[in-house]
Amino acid sequence: MGFPALRHPIVLAPLAGGPSTPALTAAVTNAGGLGFVAGGYLSAEALDERIHETRELTDGAIGVNLFRVRAVPVDEAALAAYTAELEPEALRRGVALGEAVFEDDGWDAKLEVVLDRSVEVVSTTFGCPPAGAVRRLREAGASVWMTVGSLPEARAARAAGADAIVLQGVEGGGHRASWDDAEDGDVPMLELLRAAAAEIEVPLVATGGIADGAGIAAALDAGARAAQLGTAFLLCAEAGTHEAHRRALRAGGSTAVTRAFTGRRARGIVNEFMRRHAGAPSAYPHVHHLTAPLRAAARAAGDPDGFNLWAGESFERSRDLPAGALVEQLAAELADHRVPGTEVPGTGQRWQPGHQ
Questions:
Q1: Which pLDDT tens digit goes with each residue over 119-161?
Q2: Cα separation of 123 and 70, whole Å?
Q3: So what's the pLDDT on residue 208?
Q4: Which of 68-72, 182-186, 187-191, 317-321 has the lowest mean pLDDT?
Q5: Which residue, among 185, 191, 199, has the nearest Cα to 149 in the 3D structure?
Q6: pLDDT tens per residue, range 217-255
Q7: Of 26, 37, 59, 190, whose CB count within 10 A is highest?
């Protein structure tokens, strides 16, 4: 329990949906950061196997991220209209649309997995975990991290017993981690971090648009204990990033926030699917299941215009390096941006090269 000791204040974002692999998680941990296993979208059995495979590759601490999905009212008429809008896509791809249903991503079963596997850090996304789950995780020795997208959510996470709070800025790639799917409330990472650091004593982890040592240094100087990077690792050889996604990352372009693929706001590289379906309703995971066959067909065809290309605003600075080498390079860049003897935010200690 508490914040794990890290050689470098670098955390691998969970990267659910394909890029997360045991090799990537272990490489980041072995290099002195904290690697995360993405539990989202996996069955409990698959998650258990991923953790086992990761443990085979590292003796260091690892984290596991779980989706905390809650049932909320959905505009059924809007969902039906979106289904009709996607029918031509399905016809063109030669697939049937998926069933637009709600499910909670197997929360209960996955909770038992992380408890059985004695995972050092368990983080949650999309919502606040139940008090009973927080208690059980802490009793098992796990550090409980809660991911939020606003200052009110950070306050609620602190009240719920979070050992650390991951603050996601608007610049971040992939799904917005906020506990609701509201259009407003997005805040730049440093602005959110400074506001939280001014009143919340729980260790803070900053995420959103961080791609280099300078970005990590800025986060630490604003009050973070560590920086969480996701898009920065998508080009690493260990990542399971689809080759068409890799090509899009290298090609450059712009990002935008969309609900087109999953019904929940998420940032990705703008492609034709996003442009055609800008009016997708707020309905997660209903739309995720609805579009799953379309996205699978596009991936199989190597068509980057037909599936989600999640990426943060700084994606053009992603580097094609082995994950361990990337951690070491980021740490070296961080050292170049820190002045020995200055205080490490939130620790009461003085920073020295190699000091977390």
A1: 999 999 999 999 999 999 999 999 999 999 999 999 999 999 9
A2: 16
A3: 97
A4: 182-186
A5: 185
A6: 999 999 999 999 999 999 999 999 999 999 999 999 999
A7: 37
Task: Give the domain 10-69+105-241+321-350 fold.
Answer: TIM Barrel (3.20.20)
Dihedral sign from CA coordinates of 45, 50, 55, 60: negative
Closest-CA residue to 330 (of 4, 1, 11, 2): 11
Supply the pLDDT for residue 282: 97
Mean pLDDT to the nearest integer, 170-191: 92
Q: Which pair of tokens denotes residue 309? A: 């290309």
